[in-house]
């Protein structure tokens, strides 16, 4: 299995311009030994990533008959459907974040045998996500990062009812000749919401400790967190 995070061999990534300008996307891959004799875990046939393939153009449509619409969105777990009902205006931006993550994944792997290509609008990446590989680890991380970025930006632009601009002070690394408007991306909110939504599916799973399934769930949660922290 592969984990994104500290403690492993550093792999320099290209500039992660799609999610945060002037920030290098650097990630570490730590190899964990696969549990011997365990069957390969099968991931769900659908994923919340499908929101990128079936974008929600008009969030206002969720105002009427919200519950049926949320329940009909492909790829959402029960917990994610509940969050959809509570935060209907967020769904469009979750889809945008997933789409940004997919595009960045395709850019980073464009010269490799597996280039992050999508196979359908439901499972998105298909059977390749069944393997606990570094490609899978990167995909989980980059998708989570995309959601943080999209939600944070939507807060700043006043698109979401439950958040606004960041209250953070002027960034220390901002050039002196640049004007600071005092309204930055609300990364704190974006991080919290992305953690709640993206991790919901994994946290709903209950596996016996020490099994492959349990280890895979932990791997997914770890890589989601690594992705959120790049913002």
From TrEMBL:
Keywords: Developmental protein, Disulfide bond, Extracellular matrix, Glycoprotein, Lipoprotein, Secreted, Wnt signaling pathway. GO terms for molecular function: cytokine activity; frizzled binding. It comes from the Eukaryota. GO terms for cellular component: extracellular space. Its main location: secreted. GO terms for biological process: canonical Wnt signaling pathway; cell fate commitment; neuron differentiation. It is found in: Secreted, Extracellular space, Extracellular matrix. It holds the Pfam family wnt. InterPro entries: Wnt (IPR005817). Ligand for members of the frizzled family of seven transmembrane receptors. Belongs to the Wnt family. This is Protein Wnt. It comes from Scyliorhinus torazame (Cloudy catshark).
